[in-house]
């Protein structure tokens, strides 16, 4: 497979420089960062480009999104994602992840899904005009979590502008078959997160990313959890997906460095993809 491998620096929290340094030391050539950290360089784009270059890294994407289903936030969400895309465009980066808003308040209603599609369509058109492709990312604990919600949003959004970012762990924990979803929407895939689920398989309802409380992480390093990546990788091959695969570990079970090393070794030794692509 000819996919380019990236890694998310979420595991290092606010220590962006250490994250870049250690990812580079492990051989990674691309990363995704917290958006608020990147936007600190919004008016110093060349400085951020040089910072990435000093670690031989490029930026694969940034996470945008917002509360798409809330009509009162429509203009705000569109403006924010346009702002992020403007920054990405100046850097020459062509992917933005549309993360849905949380916390989840039960199933999203049909009216909410229609509003979500409306806002996503408009925001995606704005980012597309800037040369940045918007990739919808179903996410536990948010307004877009379940398979029927995903299907509705994908059906109601414009496939000329709105693309798809599956996350192996979020799809699986929400009860979906990740390989099946990849086959269903493979023609719209433009980005992907690789993540594993803990062997304990904790109830996704305890997912606390939006509450700020401490809980057992439901995600873990690649190869240490319960997800079978063989059918997932076969599905990617079947749909001809050759884009970014971004390793993401929300919370390390050891140290960020060791966690990323585990993921690096799994990607190279088990999935057969070199993390070095240039």
Oligomer: single chain
Along the chain, the helix and strand elements come as EHEHHEHEHEHEHHEEEHEH
Counted by DSSP, the helix tally is 10
The CATH topology is given as TIM Barrel
CATH class: Alpha Beta
Beta-strand content bin: 5-15%
At the fourth level of CATH, the homologous superfamily is Divalent-metal-dependent TIM barrel enzymes
- What general outline do the C-alpha atoms trace? globular
Terminal-residue CA separation:
15 Å
**Largest sheet, if any?**
8 strands, parallel
Would you tell me the overall average pLDDT? 94
**Share of helical residues:** 40-55%
Return residue spans where pLDDT drops below 50 for at least 5 consecutive residues.
Answer: 206-215
Tell me the count of domains: 1
How would you describe this structure to a colleague?
By secondary structure, this protein is an alpha/beta fold. It has one domain: Divalent-metal-dependent TIM barrel enzymes (TIM Barrel). Helix content is 40%, strand content 12%. An eight-stranded parallel sheet has the order 6-5-4-3-2-1-10-7, with helices on one face. Helix 1 (16-25) links the parallel strand 1 (5-8) and strand 2 (30-32). Helix 4 packs parallel to helix 5. The longest helix is centred in the middle third of the chain and has 20 residues, at 110-129. The chain is globular, with a radius of gyration of 17 Å.
């Amino acid at each position: 497979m000819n996919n380019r491998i990236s890694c998310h620096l979420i595991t290092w929290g606010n220590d962006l420089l250490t994250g870049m340094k250690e990812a580079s030391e492990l051989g990674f050539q691309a990363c995704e960062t917290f958006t608020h950290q990147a936007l600190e360089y919004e008016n110093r784009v060349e400085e951020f480009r040089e910072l990435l270059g000093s670690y031989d890294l490029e930026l694969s994407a940034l996470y945008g999104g917002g509360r798409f289903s809330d009509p009162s936030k429509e203009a705000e969400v569109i403006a924010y994602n346009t702002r992020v895309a403007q920054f990405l465009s100046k850097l020459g980066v062509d992917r933005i992840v549309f993360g849905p808003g949380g916390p989840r308040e039960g199933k999203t209603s049909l009216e909410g899904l229609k509003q979500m599609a409306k806002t996503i369509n408009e925001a995606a058109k704005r980012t597309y005009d800037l040369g940045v492709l918007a990739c919808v990312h179903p996410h536990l604990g948010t307004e877009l979590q379940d398979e029927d919600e995903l299907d509705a949003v994908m059906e109601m959004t414009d496939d000329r502008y709105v693309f798809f970012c599956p996350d192996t762990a979020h799809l699986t924990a929400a009860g979906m078959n990740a390989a099946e979803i990849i086959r269903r929407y493979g023609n719209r895939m433009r980005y992907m997160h690789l993540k594993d689920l803990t062997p304990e398989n904790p109830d996704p309802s305890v997912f606390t990313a939006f509450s700020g409380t401490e809980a057992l992480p439901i995600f873990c390093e690649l190869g240490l959890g319960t997800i079978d990546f063989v059918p997932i990788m076969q599905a990617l091959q079947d749909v001809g997906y050759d884009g970014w695969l971004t390793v993401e570990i929300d919370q390390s079970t050891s140290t960020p460095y060791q966690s990323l090393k585990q993921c690096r070794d799994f990607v190279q030794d088990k999935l057969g993809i070199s993390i070095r692509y240039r």
